[in-house]
Structure formats: C-alpha cells, structure tokens
Amino acid sequence: MKTALSRRHALGLAAAAAALQVTAPARAASAEEARTFVSTFGQQLIAIVNSDRSLADKKTAILPLLQDHVDMDSIGRYCLGRYWRVATPEQQTRFLAVFHQILVNSISDKIGDYRGVTFTIGNVSASGTDQAVDTVINRPEQPPVNAQWIVSFSSGKPMVVDVMAEGPSLRLTTRQDYASFIGRHNGSIDALLHALDHQVAAHSTP
Amino acid sequence: MRAVTGSNLQPSRSCTPARRPRRIARFLAGLGLATLAGCAAPPPKDPDALAEYREANDPYESLNRKMYDVSMTLDKYSMRPVAKAYVWAVPYRVRQSLGTMVQTMNEPVVFFNDVGAGKPRRAGDAFVRWCVNMVAGLGGLIDVAKYAGYPHHDNDAGLTLATWGVPSGPYLFLPMMGPSSIRDGAGYGIDVGLSPWNYVPRGYGLLTFNWAYNIMGTINGRADHLDALDQLQKDALDPYATIRSAYQQQRKAQAEAISNDHRATVPDWYN
C-alpha cells in the first residue's frame, strides 16, 4: 500500500516535472513571440502616425493594421459583458459593426495628430493565459505614457485583446461604461446601439 | 496686514479654541456619514446586476452623481478655461518645470508614506529625489534626480492604507476634488498633515508661497488632464461611470505596484 502510494506520488511528480519542462519553454517562447508581435505592430503603427499624411489618410491606413493585430470581436464581446448573452443575434451583429468603428476612431483620435512618436518595450509577463507586454510611449511635449499590451494566443495567432494605459484596462473601463449606460436605460441594448450610432455619426462630422 | 493675520493665527496655549473646531469637524463628519447612509440605494436582486453593483462599489451613486454634475459644471466655467489659458500663455518647458516643482515639494509626503508602507528602497528614492532636486534642481524646478536614476513614483496615505490591507470602502465623488473613496478621502486628510508646508512659520512670506504653490499646483494639475478629460467626456457614454471605473482600477494598480516592489535597499551593483 505504502509503496503503491509512493509510486503513485513519484509518477505524479514525474508527470508534473515533465509538464513543467514542456510548459516552461512554451511560455518563454510565447513571451518572446508576444514581444516581437508588439514590436512589429508598434513599428508599423508608428510609421503611419509619424508620416506626413493627413489625419483621414492615416485613419484609412491604420484600419487594416488594426484588423490584423487587434481582436476587435473578442474585445466587443467582453465590453458588452452580461448583455452579450441576452442580445439577439441581430443586435450582436449590429453591436460588433458599430464597435469596430468606435474602436478605430478612439485609437486614431489618441495617436493620430502626433509626429515624432517613439516607444520602448520593457518587461513581458504572463497575465493569466495571455502575455502582458510593457511599453513606454513618448509623444513630443507630452508626459510619457506607460502602456501594457495584453496579447492573447487563444485564436491561434497573437492578437491584442486589451491595453492598460497607466493602470486601467481599456476593455474593463468600457464594459463598466456600457453596463452603467444600459442599466440607466432600463436594460435596453437598443438604447446602447442608438447611442453608439450617434457617437460614430458625431465623430464623422467635426 | 499679514502681521495682523499672523498674530491672530498664532497657536494658542489654552485648549478650548483648538478643541472647538475639532468638535465642529467631528459633527460635520458625523453629519456627512448620516447623509451618506440616507442616500445608499438598496442593492439589486438579480444576481448579474448584483455582481455589477458590487463591482462598481458605489452605494451612494445618486449623491455622487449630483456631486459629479456640480463639479463638472463648476469646472466648465472656472478651472477648465483657466487651465486652457494657462496652457496657451505658458510655454511647455515652463509648465513642465512648475510641474516638477510641485512634485518635488510633495516628495516629503511620498517619503513618509513609503516609510509607512514599509518600502525602504522607495523611501530612499523619494528622499534622494527631494535632496537632489531641491539643491541641484534649483528648488525643484529641474528634475535632476530623474537623470541620476531616481525617477518619480507616486504614493499617498490612501495607498499606504491600501498596502496595510485597509479596504477602499465605497466610492465617493468629492466636489472639486474628484474621484475618491472613504479610505482615499481619509488618506487625503493624512497627507495634508504630513506635508511640511502646512507647518511653515507664518509671517516669513512662506505662507504666501504656500498659497501660490497650492493654486499654481491645482491649475498645473488640471492643465495636465485637459485633453484626457475632454476626450473622456466625448468618448464615454456615461463619463461618470467611466471615471469611476478608471479611478478604481488605477488605485488598485498603484497599490499593487507598491506591494510588489521588493527591491533591496542596497544598490543594484552591490548584489
């Protein structure tokens, strides 16, 4: 009995050790992968931002880049939170469509009008199943911003699923914003869609 | 004129006049808590809604929203235009220097809180920053310490209490002071007590300096957030909830950053 137990323990230990050996290099690899991913994505983004094109031109150039590197659908689902489950398929499609535009507007608003933006990559650490890549973004005549990029590998290829600028998570803040808005409109998802449509319309007419 | 005011404010030896404001303060605090208790909304019944309610940690939401509306209206017609004019009139480098000065003058508060949080390396950094910037940085106008490898870090009594395990308590939006919580509000009071500038002897021109410093610091601080706050109010569907969420997350991240700072007190090259 005793030997059987200890043998089982030994087996368990061996299995755990083997698993650790397998996961440790995998984790290191994905950390390295996340770093390269953020680095190339950042370089491409900054090349557009720092160019002499007009703001509208920059936006059109940024859009495919964001679609390739940012998992907008996953962020959208997260932001709708518990209301995603109660939304009709039609509402879900409408929401994701308008959410893409909101996200693109928001990102290009934040970085669009700057020239001479640079960034440096710092530590990469595991954040749950994802990788968190620390960066410092320097904009001329502005205090530097510490931004952490959360890169997920769950879809098979690396995708940005969240950005934490100086602490707060972009998607969590947005989720709480939407939840509060829907809560104050008697739980109506249509009210949210209407407000988001309105926001996109207001954005395109300066 | 100042001499007269100064003599009136001389600390008195008898206890009665000092005790009276304290009693009034206690009464006001009690009244405040009673008002808050009266304003707390009952938690929702639905489990999902309850989880959301707990996450927001804002039982006094209706009162907080009123405070938010009042503050934002006042800001729109007072602080925001002043800050805009300040940005327009004062060149970036000068604003940056003044910001550094405000930061340096606050370094003693950071130091005491680092000590309170039991983080000697951080306390050492704050102490070195204070000494270097006050002397080589010409009274704090130039952040020499940053170039010497001592970058600024934030700390306040609210965060120190957080590292001690004190929960934040319900969220509060304080008029003209912005987002806070029971713990952070109390922390603000402690910080005022920790700031040496509130103990300067009166009648040496230092009081005037303290006023100028506080007013300038407020304008400078508001100017730093001009774009961010404008954008937030434009982008958010419910700016109140967005500010609440961002504030709570930021405080949590700051407290975690302090707790996770296990650097040794000896310099890196010594190890």
Quick structural summary:
The complex is a heterodimer of chains A (206) and B (271). Chain A has 206 residues and is an alpha+beta fold.
Written description of the protein model:
- The complex is a heterodimer of chains A (206) and B (271).
- Chain A has 206 residues and is α+β, with helices and mostly antiparallel strands.
- Chain A has seven helices and four strands.
- Chain A has a single domain, classed as Tgt2/MlaC (Nuclear Transport Factor 2, Chain: A), CATH 3.10.450.710.
- Chain A has helices at residues 2-49, 55-69, 72-80, 83-86, 89-111, 170-184, 189-204; strands at residues 118-127, 130-138, 145-152, 159-165.
- A four-stranded antiparallel sheet of chain A has the order 1-2-3-4.
- In chain A, a hairpin with a 6-residue loop joins β3 (145-152) and β4 (159-165).
- In chain A, α5 (89-111) packs parallel to α7.
- Chain A is globular and about 45 Å long.
- Chain A starts with a helix and ends with a helix.
- Residues 1-5 of chain A have low confidence and may be disordered.
- By secondary structure, chain B is mostly helical.
- Chain B has one domain (59-260).
- Chain B has 14 helices and two strands, in the order ααααααααααββαααα.
- Chain B has helices at residues 2-8, 16-39, 47-56, 61-77, 79-89, 92-105, 107-116, 120-135, 144-147, 157-163, 182-194, 206-224, 226-235, 239-259, and strands at residues 171-174, 178-181.
- In chain B, α5 (79-89) crosses α12 and α7 runs antiparallel to α8 (120-135).
- Chain B starts with a helix and ends in a 12-residue tail after the last helix.
- In chain B, 27% of the residues are buried.
- The model of chain B is unreliable at 1-21 (pLDDT under 50).
- The interface between A and B is medium-sized, with 27 and 24 residues.
- Chain A: InterPro entries: MlaC/ttg2D (IPR008869), TAT_signal (IPR006311), Tgt2/MlaC_sf (IPR042245).
- Chain A: Keywords: Signal.
- Chain A: It holds the Pfam family MlaC.
